[in-house]
Each structure stands twice: as structure tokens, then as C-alpha cells.
Amino acid sequence: MSRFYILPILAILAVIFVIKTVIAGSVPAPVAAPVVEPARSPYPRFVAGSGIIEATDGNIAIASALPGIIKQVFVSVGDPITVGQALFTLDDREALAQLEVAEAQLEKAKATLADAETQLSIYQGVTDARAITKGELLRRESAVSVAKAGVAQAVASVDEIRTTLDRMTVRSPLNGSVLQSKARVGEFAPASALLTPLMVVGITTPLEVRVDVDENDAWRVKGGAPATAVLRGNTAVSFPLKFDHFEPYVIPKRSLTGESTERVDTRVLQVMYSFDRSTLPVYVGQLVDVFIESEK
Questions:
Q1: Do 61 and 121 reside in the same domain of the chain?
Q2: Separation CA 254–CA 108 (nearest Å)
Q3: Taking the alpha carbons of 67, 70, 76, 82 in that order, is the dihedral positive or negative?
Q4: Rounded distance, CA 293 to CA 177, Å?
Q5: How far apart are the first and last CA of the chain?
Q6: Hey, is 230 helix, strand or coil?
Q7: C-alpha–C-alpha distance, residues 294 and 44, integer Å
Q8: Bond before 30 cis per omega within 30 degrees
Q9: Rounded distance, CA 189 to CA 285, Å?
Q10: What is the three-state SS of 152-183?
Q11: What is the dihedral of CA 229, 232, 236, 241, to 10 degrees?
Q12: Distance of CA 8 to CAs 4, 14, 51, 90, Å?
């Protein structure tokens, strides 16, 4: 008789277990608190955009006009720089050797010119016209002209090499500071644009924020409207922005967030703002969330 009840009891227990499992699984999991509170707009009506901090007038990528091995680096990251200040220089031994040869050629050309002028003055000093022919005098005058041309050519060669030597020293184009330095003594510096520049310099007082505004919201942004930037990672740090200008060309969006609702074909209007860095814990290249006040 007991065997007759075993199967129904096991079936009832299995049903109870399934019911308890389903009920336990249907309980919603608690929502985890965000690691960082999202940025909130200080304006009731606003346009939001992603911004990146840049040096004033943009970050200047420094390159070498000539290829060569880096001989010496004169500045470090964070150093203040002035217009014309040497940043780094290339190995100039070959150019210096060429300069010595060119200067020797110049001295030789000057000596040749002096000799030709001396010969011409002797012939011109002869009072008796029968002593020399007119053709001989013309040849002496022509020799002086050729010697002068030789001196001019030698001077040009010396100047060319000196210009090359000067171009081997890369100098600062502005008054600012060194933002990044990848120049190392002994490394080869190509004379071309690099994905990672040898150096990046810029004006850091004040700084600028380049804001990407979705093309659908671009019409809502007015020049001079109040704007506030919020630091990513610490929403307690926010600072006002001063409108500078619009970039009039709308470009494809590049900074993707990875959200499923994002359209890769979106175009953005870039708006430039400036702000006083003072004691703010911000750096060039850092991302911020920007809120721009808009009208109804």
C-alpha cells in the first residue's frame, strides 16, 4: 500500500519545488546604485553635449621639418615655453661637415675674385693703348664677372646649409606650455605627420571646451547662452563656460558612447567655449558633460 502513494507524493513535492523556484526567480533584483551620480543640468531647459578640454586655439602637434636622429631635448612636459624657444634638435654632424666644405669653397671663390680684380686693375692702369688689345681687356672684365658669380653661388651654398642647420632645431610657435612629449634622445624623427606627435604644445591660460551638439538640437543653441560644464567622475565639480564661437561646418559624430540608441550617422555642431582654469582639477584632453541653457 505504501508503494501506491510514493509516486503521487513525489509528484506533489516536485510541483511544490517548481512553484517555489518560479516565485523566487520572479522577485526583481535590487537595482545597484551608480558608482558616480550622473551629471544634472542647472537649467530648466537645456541642450546637453559631450565636451573635450583643449588648449586655446587648439592643441599644436609639433613635428620635424627634416628627418634625423634626435640629438637633444631641451624641454619637459609642463614646462612653460615662449615663441622661438628651442624644443629639440637633430643630429647635425653631416650638415656641419657640409658647412665647412661650403665655407672653404667661399674663401676660394673670394680669392679667385680678388685675383681677377687685381689683373683687371693692372690692365686698366696701362696708359698706352697699343700695349694691350681690347679683347684682352674684355676677357679680364669677364673673368671678374665670373668670379663675382662664383662668390655669390658660394655664399648661397653657405646660407642654404646654415638654414638647414637652423631647421634641425625645432622651435616653439607660441607662448604656452608643453602638454605632451614623445621626443627621446636617439630616436628617429621622421619628416611627416605622425599619429602620435613628437610633442604637443598649447596655450593653457585660458582653456577651451569643444562641445559636440547633436544636429537635431543645434537650432536650439544660441550664441552667448549660459553654459555649465560638469566634470566626469565628480559631478560636484562644475564651472561656468564663456561662449567663444561656433564651428560653422557640421561634422560626423566621432565620440561614440556605445549606447544601443546611438546613431553612427549622426552629425554634430561643434561649439567652442572658454573658461578660467585657476584651481580647477581639469586637464587638456579631459571629457566633460556640458549643459547649455535654451529657450522654449
A1: no
A2: 62
A3: negative
A4: 33
A5: 82
A6: strand
A7: 9
A8: no
A9: 24
A10: HHHHHHHHHHHHHHHHCEEECCCCEEEEEECC
A11: -10
A12: 8, 10, 68, 92
Here the CATH number for the domain that contains residue 97 is: 1.10.287
Strand partners, 239: 229
pLDDT in tens, 155-211: 999 999 999 999 999 999 999 999 999 999 999 999 888 888 999 999 988 899 999
Helix (H) or strand (E) holding 93: helix 93-125
Residue 192: all three cell numbers together: 611627416
Q: Which amino acid is at 257?
A: T
- Asked if residue 34 is part of any domain, the answer here is no
- Least Cα distance to 172 among 139, 192, 201 occurs for 201
Side chain identity at 5, as an amino acid letter? Y
Report yes or no on 178 lying in a domain.
Answer: no
Question: Which pLDDT score, from 0 to 100, does residue 198 have?
Answer: 93
Report if residue 27 sits inside a domain.
no
